[in-house]
Design goal:
With about 180 residues, the chain is mostly helical. The chain is about 80% helix and about 0% strand.
Length: about 180
């Protein structure tokens, strides 16, 4: 079977996104080093790792399903979820960081509920703050529009109606079509 020749456009796209080209995208050395350190720490501190992986599941899910990895939603959920997990990590450490205590914590529904409700509170914070900010920006836009209309009236009063008609004739509408 002969391979078809790639067009110049396809070649540029392949270079820009190697994963889309069917090739595997290589992980940077620094990322591989961090991943190796995390795996080693996870094995060394296995009881804590089990507690954090199970306790931080809402954050992991938010990270996976989020379109933007660096978004505020993932950060908010993760911060609140971690805040809900930390007391139980301290409890585990005070008991000697053993596997049995870790399993007792992660199988206790009350403790899991506290960890997951903290993450839910992070979702709620994101929802409320997003609504407040969008409302504020909307109101600011309305106020700005009113100021512009007021200024237009002042200019029309000062320069006359002919200015508005002449300005309407000079608008290049072809730019708006693009």
């Amino acid at each position: 079977m002969a391979k078809k020749k790639k067009t110049e456009q396809e070649d540029k796209q392949d270079k820009a996104n190697p994963a889309a080209a069917g090739g595997k995208k290589k992980m940077a050395f620094k990322a591989r080093l961090w991943l190796a350190c995390i795996i080693v720490a996870g094995v060394v501190f296995l009881p804590t790792s089990i507690l954090l992986v199970i306790g931080m599941l809402p954050s992991i899910v938010a990270f996976v399903v989020s379109a933007r990895v660096s978004g505020a939603k993932v950060s908010t959920i993760t911060a609140m979820n971690l805040a809900g997990c930390i007391p139980f990590v301290f409890k585990l450490w005070s008991a000697g960081n053993d596997f049995e205590m870790s399993m007792d914590i992660v199988t206790n529904m009350r403790y899991l509920s506290i960890m997951y409700m903290a993450a839910a509170f992070g979702y709620m914070i994101d929802w409320v703050v997003t609504g407040i900010v969008s409302s504020f920006l909307y109101q600011r836009g309305i106020k700005r529009m009113e100021e512009i209309k007021k200024r237009q009236k002042e200019l029309k009063k000062h320069w006359g109606e002919a200015v508005e008609e002449q300005a309407a004739q000079n608008i290049d509408y072809s730019m708006l079509e693009k």
